[in-house]
Amino acid sequence: MNSGEVAGLHWATAQPTRLRWEDGIIRQLELEPRPLPENIWLAPPLFDLQVNGFGGVDFQRDDFSAADLSRAVHALRRAGCGRFLFTLTTVEWPRLTARLARAAALRAESEDLQSSIAGWHIEGPFLSPGPGFRGAHDPALMLDPAPDKIRALRSLTGGDPLLLTIAPERPGALEAIALAVSLGAMVSLGHTDATAETVRAAAQAGATGFTHLGNGCPRELDRHDNILWRVLDGSGLTVSVIPDRIHVSAALFRLIHGLMPAEKLVYVSDAIAAAGAGPGRYTLGALELEVGPDQIVRLPGQPYFAGSALRPIEGIFRAAAMLDVPWRKLWRRMSDLPARFMGLNHELAEGGPASFCLLTEKAGGGLGDLRLFARGRECLPA
Questions:
Q1: Which of 137, 234, 306, 380 has its CA 20 to 30 A from that of 97?
Q2: pLDDT digits over 324-367, tens only?
Q3: Under a CB-based contact definition with an 8 Å cutoff, are residues 237 and 264 in contact?
Q4: What is the dihedral of CA 242, 248, 253, 257, to 10 degrees?
Q5: Residue 237: which of 268, 205, 271 has the closest Cα?
Q6: First to last CA, the chain
Q7: Considering Cα of 97, then 100, then 102, then 105, what sign does the dihedral take?
């Protein structure tokens, strides 16, 4: 029988808390009257809006299998991430839709994949082809977001949560944003050099997010007018950043936190197959990427980053170090806040799934042991 109980300090309140579950559902979540160790914490799993692959599994392939997806899911769980958006990047349109259809079909056949793959993120091909702004995306394969393409993506994903990253300066983009929102999709701006006026127009059309600010733009920008300032200067968008100290410097990371409303800033890993798999050479679709001991993912011979090798749990602790705050103050930026952005509930609550993390904190504030339970079953090391 899938039942049990655990106890730890609640991540948000620091109150001793006991969680009991039966049949994979939380039946009781209550204060624990007895004292508990001060270094064991109970928290919801992390939620990642942007995963391109993980644990040696590349989602940007035509032949991934259910076993591949399951391997990536379990590797993500060992990194503290219980739910994520399966992300596809720029490729020929027929191949993109075929990959999406394949992933949706495999997910539909597995309850375990359904519980982990919360939805879909399409990052391309509706992006800026400009140098730096395109990142590692092939500009020759980029397209304008025509209505038939927006409808095709919505049809392939049914009623699942769907996030589209769009550069709003592309022809027809504002109309496409309004259409996508009317069909129940979410729209995030990204890989864009849109003017401040166009950013505002995109928000008025229904865009609500911005994809990995500080990435998908040139290394050198105009100090008076650039995409960072246009987004941070009151755009009202929910901004995601990659908290790895690589894509965004510690100084800029702190500035973003100082400028953004607390509820409008979330973290993403932008992970590729290299994440959770160590240094080496990996694929991102047709690209061969190099990952060094510094965990920086690069196109060989080029300065551009291409995704990240960040494990979600490492992102939380790196962010805490950059901001010099306890990790608990940042946990929601990669758990309930991104889930809420997608219209999903990801909190620990009675009647909800018994999916949670049990963390042991080291004396110096670093991560000790990490255990993740998915619907009451612990994800054990491979």
A1: 306
A2: 999 999 999 999 999 999 999 999 999 999 999 999 999 888 89
A3: yes
A4: -50
A5: 205
A6: 23
A7: negative
